[in-house]
Amino acid sequence: MAIGLVAASLSGVPAVAAPQVAAPGAAICTGSSVGPGIAPPSRVALGIPGFHASWYGQSGYPTLCPGERSNAVVAFYNSGSRGWVSGRMGEVAYLGTWNGDPGQDEPTVLGGNGELGSPQTGWPRFNRVAAQPSDYVGPGQVAWFQFTIQAPDRPGFYRLYIRPLVEGATWMEDAGVYWQVTVLGADGTAPAGRVSSRVPAPIEDTSPGWAPAAFNNVGFAQPPGDGIVLSGGTTGSWTSSWQTTRFSFSQLIPSWTADTPAGSWIEVEIQARTAAGRETRWWRMGIWAYGDETIRRTSVSGQSDADGVVETDTFKTRAEKMTAYRARVTLSRMTAAGATPALRRIYAVVSDTRSYMPRYPSPRYIDRAMELSVPRYSQEIHAGEFPQYDGGGEAWCSPTSTEMVVEYWNKRPATDELAWVGAHADPQVDYAARFTFDTAYGGTGNWPFNTAYASRFGLSARVLQLGSLNDAERYIAAGVPLVASISHAPGALPGFLNNDGTNGHLLVIIGFTSSGDVIANDPAATSDATVHRVYGREAFERAWIGGSGGVVYFIATPNTFVP
What we know:
This protein is mainly β. The protein has helices at residues 397-408, 427-434, 447-455, 469-477, 537-548; strands at 7-9, 33-34, 53-58, 62-64, 69-78, 84-85, 93-97, 128-131, 136-137, 141-150, 156-166, 170-171, 178-183, 203-206, 213-216, 218-220, 228-230, 235-240, 243-249, 251-259, 264-273, 279-288, 308-311, 314-317, 322-333, 342-351, 370-371, 460-465, 482-488, 502-512, 518-521, 532-535, 551-556. Strands 2, 4, 7, 8, 11, 12 and 13 form a seven-stranded mixed beta sheet that branches. Strands 14, 16, 17, 20, 23, 24 and 26 form a seven-stranded antiparallel beta sheet that branches. Strands 27, 28, 29, 30, 31, 32 and 33 form a seven-stranded antiparallel beta sheet that branches. The two termini are 34 Å apart.
């Protein structure tokens, strides 16, 4: 840095210069730069009683490659009557993280001291961007705060809001100061939208590799990338290697893609491990076949011990969190001569959202309206249909939502497959309910059963968790609607059909208004014509993130790209 960290009188303040940028972190990305500095104002206040500060200038906004660092400088003028004294609680000045992004005293992905998910960039603390640069900054003097920013791996436009404070005494004036950091793609391309600078929720989407693994009477399908099949006989199993997660998790939701010809089925289990290396029991996460002519597709109830509990489709830990898991899938068929089941993909989303406090509402990803043309189906018009599959109506929100997205991708059951439904309207909804029905649960809302159903149509489908509507906007911008799981108290989601609220409901996020509100195809509607809804951004985000922790069904064509 050519600029020294000094305190100067108002008459002798140097101009704000552009800082130096480190060498690019990836040779393919070469577009980094720093914009021009921002000049000081012509006049500032002076001698206001107590601690006060006025913004006085700053270096330019950087454009960086992923992982790249840049030095930044901001000047604040001491417009109060009291001086700032370094190292003295109640008198020392800092810059703190502030609203709107990442939020007051919140950690950020743009810098920190390595705590609470922040990168180690030499800040005094995760929520203190810089300390006053000299021992004393008197009234009428300017302090030049310097700090280092690090570009996250995910491309996007980030903002770091900061506000001066006297530690242990008071926050000083909020001048709306922020840095905009543009993070390019790994190939140097410009980002598509804005990403929150807050440390994201602890969520990790994982998929164990096919090898190394334990193969018991199973082998690779041909070609090998197509998954696992029986080698012979009527049963065999594949057990993945241990998958270490980036953080200790309190929840795991598996999902899978499999082919189960008539007479065959699979069972999915997971096992978890503590930080000390202690292994839990095997947890049975589902006995599944696409059809219902051979087995009764079912979750397994009654699984609970001191380590955790299985709630239908979700493994939740007790007090002790887990740091690794592995999966076991058993493939079975009625006779050795029968067609073999095939495990095509297996996924597990792990999270620890119970120890994460979201901020509502999240910032916009793209400041424009977006809406996808998704078919509209009501669950309510099916009330009373097929009691053996939980009787339609409010019970069918999940398969109705899943079917809407399947058909968005121009897939649907064949006409002859629907013959058993009879004269009911929208028979494909009845069909989806039958082929997602969970016997033990007694309903159609099993999350991985719904994504496994969608994958039967050649679609890529799995259960995900997202951290905010900002994340969801990325998918909509890429043309991918999302089936979202929500719950809310009575009256907490204005516009919802049932003002009594819901303990669990699924609908399709299909777009966003220009102001950021959610456009949804909500099957909780009295007709197909009234499925289309708009929900307020903050109310919806609270119902979704606060309800299920951001669970969605990702259903798309194979190799769909989401930035």
